[in-house]
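dumping this here so i dont lose it
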């Protein structure tokens, strides 16, 4: 009985030591991947990397990690337009089946999904915020974007026109969709100015616009978008996604 107790104690101690070594190893690996990802994606700050699953060392022995989560607070995504960029907030990506090299210099996920947010203030930079001629001496510009409820964006405009004293803002509800690498905003209906209908193609040059997102980390791409309280929520997905290297 005494020998059995000793054996059990030794087994518990060894198990505890293995767990400690395993956690130390996973912490080291997370740091290496985070540093590599920061360099690869030219990030301002080091991202958060979490390697999930236990034991980690068993996954390492198999050459593939089950689940790796990456968090990037602020990401500057190329728009595909003359070197311009758009800031994307709180990007979170979940990578499945991550194959890696021995020194973590390269890692590729078989599948990945992600979520992020483009604030209304950031999206407003793409809209026609400068006064623009819409015909008949009328000029218009977008002065604000906000949550319109039910997945819609409220686009607020102001108009100036000869003989019209009122300059009260006018709002329209707009749908937001994905087309290729673009987030598109399209007015569901057109505003009227003191009961006068404006020329559709002229006014849509103001109300309708698109925000390009030419590249996301690792090559994941836009999937869906939805207007929310603080901005446009985006989801992304991809396969054979490069996490590092």
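and the seq i came up w/
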């Amino acid at each position: 009985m005494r020998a059995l107790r000793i054996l059990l104690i030794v087994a518990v101690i060894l198990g505890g030591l293995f767990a400690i070594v395993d956690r130390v190893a996973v912490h080291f690996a997370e740091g290496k991947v985070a540093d590599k990802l920061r360099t690869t994606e030219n990030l301002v700050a080091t991202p958060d990397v979490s390697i999930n699953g236990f034991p980690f060392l068993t996954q390492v022995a198999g050459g593939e990690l089950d689940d790796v989560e990456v968090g990037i607070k602020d990401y500057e995504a190329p728009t595909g337009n003359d070197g311009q960029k758009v800031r994307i907030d709180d990007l979170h990506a979940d990578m499945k089946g991550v194959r890696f090299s021995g020194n973590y210099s390269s890692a590729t996920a078989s599948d990945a999904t992600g979520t992020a947010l483009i604030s209304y203030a950031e999206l407003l930079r793409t809209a026609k915020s400068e006064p623009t001629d819409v015909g008949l001496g009328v000029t218009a510009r977008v002065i604000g974007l906000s949550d319109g409820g039910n997945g819609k964006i409220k686009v607020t405009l102001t108009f100036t026109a000869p003989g019209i004293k009122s300059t009260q803002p006018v709002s329209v509800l707009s749908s937001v969709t994905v087309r290729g690498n673009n987030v598109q905003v399209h007015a569901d209906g057109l505003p009227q100015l003191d009961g006068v209908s404006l020329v559709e193609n002229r006014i849509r040059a103001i109300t309708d616009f698109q925000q390009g997102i030419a590249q996301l980390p690792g090559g994941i791409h836009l999937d869906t978008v939805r207007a929310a309280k603080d901005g446009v929520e985006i989801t992304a997905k991809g396969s054979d996604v490069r996490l590092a290297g």
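Residues 5 and 207 are 77 Å apart (CA to CA).
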